[in-house]
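Example (one chain per record):
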Amino acid sequence: MQGERQNVYKVYDKIAAWFAANRYTRLTEKKYLDELISRLPADGTILDLGCGTGKPILKYLLDKK
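Predicted structure:
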């Protein structure tokens, strides 16, 4: 993958399907997400700048709305 540094998104595209199929889907981050949610104002928003499918983290946040 050397030489693809300029187009790093292409590397991610190569592994995206594998990552989605193999990502550990138990929400090990729940404790931290709940802490984040508890600190938001009632009308607060979160911008998800992560990569991947949004499961399980984004799904958890959306379910808490």
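Caption: The helical segments are 8-22, 30-39, 57-63.
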